[in-house]
Amino acid sequence: MKKGIIYVALLIGLLACNDEFTESPAIGALSDAALKNETGVNLLLTGAYSTLDGVRSGGYGNGWSVSGDNWIMDVVSDDAHKGSTDDDQADLKEVELMNWATGNGYFYGKWGVTFAGINRANAVIALIASIEEGDFSAQMAEARFLRGHFNFELQKIWGNVPYISDENYANTEFNQPNPGPIWDQIEADFDFAMNNLPSTQGEVGRPTSWAAKAFLGKAHLYQSEWSTAAALLNDVVDNGPYDLMSDYVDNFRSAGDNSEESIFSIQFTTDSGQSYNGNSGGALNFPNPGPFGSCCGFYQPTQDLLNAFQTDGSGLPLLDTFNQTDVASDAGIETAAAFTPHAGALDPRADYTVGRRGIDYNGYGEHIGKDWIRAGFGDISGPYLPKKNVYWNGDSANQATGGWGQQLSGVNYHIMRFADVLLMAAEAAVETGDLATALDNVNRIRNRAKSSNYMQADGGGDAANYEIEPYTAFADAAYARKAVRFERRVELGMEGHRVFDLRRWGNAVQVMNDYFANESRTITNFAGKVSPYTATHNLFPIPLGAIDLSGNVLTQNPGF
Amino acid sequence: MKNKLLKKLIVLPVFLLFGSVIYAQIVTGVVSDANGPLPGVNILVKGTNTGTQTDFDGNYSFDVGSSEAVLVFSYVGYKTQEISVAGQSNIDVSLEEDAAQLDEVVIMGYAAQTRGDITGSVSSVDMDEALKAPVVNAAEALQGRVTGVTVVNTGSPGSAPRISIRGVGSNGNTNPLYIIDGVQTDDVNALNNLNPADIDQMNVLKDGAAAIYGARASNGVVVITTKSGGYNMDKAKVSLDIYTGFSQIGEEPGVLNAQQHAEMIWQSYLNDGITPTHGQYGSGATPVVPTTIQGYRRVVSYDPIVFSAPGEFTASVNPGGTDWLDAITRNAATQNVSMSIQNGNEHGKYFMSVGFLNRDGIMNHTGFKKATTRLNSEFKIGEKLRIGQHMNLSYSNTKVGDGEAIENSFRITPLLPVKDDHGNYTGVAGTDLSNTRNPAAQLYRSRNNFNRRFAVLGDVYLTYDILDELTFKTTLAGEFGTYDGRFFTALDPEHGEPISSSTLAEVDQTYYNWVWSNTLNYNKSFGDHSINAVVGVEALKNNGRGKRVSRTGYLFETPDFYTLSNGSGAANVDWTFDGWDSLWSIFGTVNYSYQDKYYATVTLRRDESSRFLGENKSDTFPSFSGGWVLSEEDFYNDDSFINRIKLRGSWGELGNQNVPTGLRTSNVNSLSDATANYSFDGSSITSGALLSSIGNPNLQWETSVSKNFGIDLSMLDSKLNVSLEYYDISSDGLISPNAATNPSTGADANPPIENIGTISNKGIDFSIGYSDTTESGFYYSVNANISHYKNEVSNFNAPVFGRGDIRNGAVTYTENGEEISYFYGRNVIGLDNDGRFMYEDVNGDGSVNDEDRTKLGSPHPDFTYGINANFAYKGFDAQLFFTGSQGNDVYNYNKVFSDFGLFFQGNRSTRVLNAWTPSNTNTSVPALTTSYPLEEASANSYFVEDGSYLKLKNVQIGYTFSDSLAEKIGMDSLRLYVQATNLFTITNYSGFDPEVVSYDNLSLGIDSRLYPISKVFTLGANIKF
User: Fold this and answer.
1) Mutating which of A52, A120, A122 best tests the B interface, going by the most B Cβ atoms within 10 A?
2) Touching check for A458 and chain B: CB below 8 Å?
């Protein structure tokens, strides 16, 4: 009996010291406590910047929809086709053709990455709030700028959106309703950033107080608060450190990275490893095969966009009639068959925006037509190639290749560049009756385009008949409005802004349906395949998966 | 808390200690059955641990201690006999076979019980029967042979089957806990390390009987013990089992041939009002299948990538097109050799085995190879001390091929030949060929990839008989393993999106775990009372670390060149992990029986786990069970038709501490090259961090309350045995990643693991078996089992959708008051005048939208069943084994590709031959279209099919040669057999196979099969020397 008890006691004693035995630390992980210092704040802040490029951890929906350069937004507009063959990324084809299903992964992907950005900014803000000592106002201002940017994206894409605050973040209360605009919160972030950021930054990738001011102005512009917008944007134009670069195309080459024209850009960067910091969301958007066997033939500009570059005898755009005639198209023409490029007058920016047959393609020689195009003649994508996002021949700093042959470009994407600010200021000026400022700003842009180096032909000389001149005057507000809006399209084409301009101008239904009809002149059956654009399409649907996951806390946008 | 428990544990041994009287008395004898001497019969002095085993000739001899002793002779499959020594020194015994096998010793982990004494729900696999089918992973042996256990195979050689016991009780990990000779693991892959032929017993603890494993037991416990030698054997016993055979593909869903494909494209254009024009099929009124691929080209040089000039390469179209599934599958060889030897003298015994298995996959360049060797031994040192060990060494290599290949074989156009006219693999770089990669090329290029595992698993133990009735045992068990993976991505010059740089990725992982158990076993009978008790303490630790590194730019594509140092790009660390967890436990169980009529068991276990914090780290799990052998009562008429009736009942609390991934009680932030770094100056990279998982400090284990009631009947002289069990298991506080806490509007971090919801499973397991031998010597037995469960979910905060990563969104839905994971979406009620789906307006609001989604079907069967029939006559034997499932639905997700043309130029199911056209309106298949009707390809009833099936899992015919003939060729016995697995499946399901491996328990029954099920035919021999 005694012996037994002793053995039982021994048995238990044998392994009794168990407190440490069951304390398992996280190896290689950073705890919240470990981050409560300057290093931690900077690590999370860098993490917040990192989502600008559209790459998050995990994610929802489609991985190509996330790109920070918003290329899919041009596909939704009259600037671009999705590109490649119809059955490659069929989900995006359905988006382009306005067959919008709430479950489409393209809506969900963009949604998911935008909230990743918002909440990584919230993480920084919440962390700073939890640290008692030290001055983190610079980091706080950057974090709020970033949150403002991501919320702006959310607002302009979906309209009726939830607002996730840093308190929500700290309390893990992410499931918030989406009653509608969050402009006040967006403005508050940019206002804080404007007042707390330095006017210059040692590192070019960080926003300045001037950048915050420009974004705040843009937020007011999007709400048609013209005078507030005008005041802010004019201040940036007049007193800010920005200017247009002398050569238009440098905005899209490494030479022009972070120039005086750049206000806030995604710092796409190549490196010798996986190039995680290249434009991976835009990796489909290279010619296939094109001049250097790249991938995958997506993001092809429209005939409609190319037509917009036509100018009249006085070097001015065909504001009302640009789409009554087509710039010569090689749709349906094999490379082996002869083709004569357009002889009519064109804005020189045309050939820095749209790659077309017979004209040099980013220094790789003349575009040879069909053999560089992946899409077939029966597909909806047409014969053109994107240029602004494709690195130039010899621009090695921007070139990198990923694991399956995709291109991970280092070409920076300008979320906002000075030309955009000039045109937004011009727009606000028109609406506030200041036609002189509007004319100045538009002409400043046109003069830069005029004085830029023009695309050259292989044998020397201009590659096409380029004609561009400034406006002599704006006859009235209506004409000025038309001219400013048109200038935005030709200056900023294929830069991800177009669809949002159409939406806020309120003319998307008309413009898009006209475009569908006109595009069919060169792309067989395009009009037959596309469904009509209706007012419902002015906002993306709230992704079905997001609504489901929220337990119906989120409500669907009207019409879906 | 701890003190109270200590008290409880000290109270236990009060039962334990009783004295004994010691005398010396040697008894010898021979044990035999009707056929002659029986080796390995256990002989015990009743009420003590003193005992021995008969040698090869059935002889025994040992000191029984007292002339008053009662000897208990027991042997698996025979009726136990008790004989009083009463002064005799020679006792010969003849044992009778026992069809009911009530005295079979069932090893249940820390203790063993005889079958007839068990009060919980414990099922045993008849390994002899199970191994008649060519089992690769021992867990396959559970399928259809154990009531209430669901086993689903993926078909991929070397992959582990998915197992759940008694319904779907958790939405996390449902793997049962496996105890392999004391090694504890919930990784079913560990069973791949075993040679199934080494297994002696495989017992499944399904209810409170599992409570001795406390916090890890709620999914059930599978206790596996391997074979051992016997003491005092006359000579070594050698067994050799060999089979060889082949696998071939089972049923194949049909796809279109080239002409049908062309017509499908044409019809799609015409339906959409588009004039057909096609890069391959021309632009005439009807399509023309070309004799050669139009625009065919391939990469001729890299950096920059240059494709061949038109006409430089050509690819001729096969007449009728290419059958791609045929092109990537084969009749695959399978071989198995397993040899074992066992022996023992009075001081020691051993069992040793070697095994080699090769199972080539039916998909080209896939397969599984395994080599194992085992040594089990035990030595007596003096009278009281025994030391033993089990050790299993295994090596395996799994070639999984390319995971996309099977899907691509359905997607790729039938027009393309496998190889071009120059002998190169073809690709889709021509016009209108879609962008599917050539699956034959993909498999070929994966041929030098490997997944190698090396594992050592086993234990060393020491037992010491402190008193005759009290034994101390200490066991140190463990597992050490390495995983070595190589994945080479080769260039694919035929593809339209060519890979521009080859990549080698190498994965290295090591893991080890150990468990140290110390137990005291007490065994005592006095008068009508019998007590069998165990107390113990145990410490367990799991460790794992690993990494994946990849590098691009290899000059050559020969495997000799595949080392990371031969790459030219920068090396990338893709992921790393390192961590451990631990468990500390004390436990005890007491089995008490009175007059072999009344039985009671009490079990307590307290676990402390590193996976939780503070108060939540530890908990105590009790269980109680009782049994009553009604037929032993005096009032029961022994002559009745039913010769034994036993009633059983149990109640137990069980835990589940399986957190899906590592440490999840606090937030984890991580540095990340891929997702957190940024360049602030446009060139150099700054390191950043992100919140990578949200912690939940309040996490605790899942607890299940399990109730079980059973009745066991033996009838007709134990020829007919029936067992019926009713169970009710309610699991509360399910450990689950809660996406609702971190929804799409949240951070890009893993959601917290929380305790959400309750799942209850109520069910019935029924088994019936009849066996008899006719006077003419014809033996036959039929065993059938049937299981039914009813699943219900409650206490979820909100409904939950299943896996969201499949195209077009989740298709399963879980809400309170319903069964877990039913199919949810729009209900198709017919086709409209354009051949497009019309959906039910469920809420009757006049419009059909996302709010009209509804229940479309259930992945839960009404019942599952297994039927096993055995026959033997004069050397011949035969076995038929069926499994089946009735009343479950399957979501045939593959239709997204095969019926809706996600890739328009790709291939389709032959179903679309019956697609709607203006002249074919009496059909359920929607009209062909050039668009990808995403809404129609999203969750709806078109995808939901009846998944009921009956499968002939195994059929075997064997012949055992007469002893005299066997002896002539130097053998003790020789049996030859032919066997076939999965010979046929009766089902209405249109996919590959209605047995669907589920991704997780919130996404049950979704068929997105990546590997076809195969039929296996073998020819084998069982030889004993």
Assistant:
1) A120
2) no
